[in-house]
Amino acid sequence: MKPLFRRPLAGGLVVAVASCALVAGCEKTTTTTQTPSGTVTTTTTIAPSADASAVMGKVNESLQDAAHAVESSAAASQALTKAGNVIEDSAITAEVKTRLLTDSEVKGLHIEVDTHDGVVTLSGKVQKAAIADRARSIARDAHGVKSVDSRLTVDPAA
Question: Which of 19, 43, 113, 116 has an alpha carbon 20 to 30 Å from 31's alpha carbon atom?
Fold first, then answer.
């Protein structure tokens, strides 16, 4: 059996055992009364015993603790995913900048590179449209890049 199936099964088992304990731990009280006019009334009351109530309180606390653990686990998972995305974006930025700086045509000293969720944004000034095209191509070919947003402007004086 896979571990993923053990937890729901265990949770269901806890609830089933607690329910049986609650039913078995109930106290049944029957009261019979007669009014002055001669009417007889029988009242049956079923209530959990003090022990059963205590057990159910502990089960409730355990279930709340389990719910908090699941919420904490989800939050931790989201934080790890976010941290992983930031690390991946940083690696993409570093790779693109390195490729731009080492390319003989681009010489990317005047090109800013920013990456967010795999989308690379290039900004700055280049001397020719061909250099802007080459920079976009270099960025697009980097590992992990989803798309490239080029905000490069052509300025022959750059």
Answer: 19
How far is residue 116's CA from residue 24's CA, in Å, rounded to a whole number? 59
- Please count the helices (runs of H) and the strands (runs of E) in the chain: 3, 5
Query: CB under 8 Å to 20, separation ≥6 — which residues?
Result: none
pLDDT at 127: 93
Cβ(53)–Cβ(59) under 8 Å?
Answer: no
CA dihedral 28, 34, 38, 41 (to 10 degrees): -30
All residues at 6 or more sequence positions from 10 whose CB lies less than 8 Å from its CB, including other chains: none
Structure tokens at 94: 């570093």
Mean pLDDT of the chain: 79
Q: Answer yes or no: are the C-beta atoms of 26 and 49 closer than 8 Å.
A: yes
* Rounded distance between C-alpha atoms, residue 107 and residue 38, angstroms: 108
Architecture of domain 83-154: 2-Layer Sandwich (3.30)
Which tops the pLDDT comparison, 156 or 70? 156
The mean pLDDT value for 99-103 works out to 93
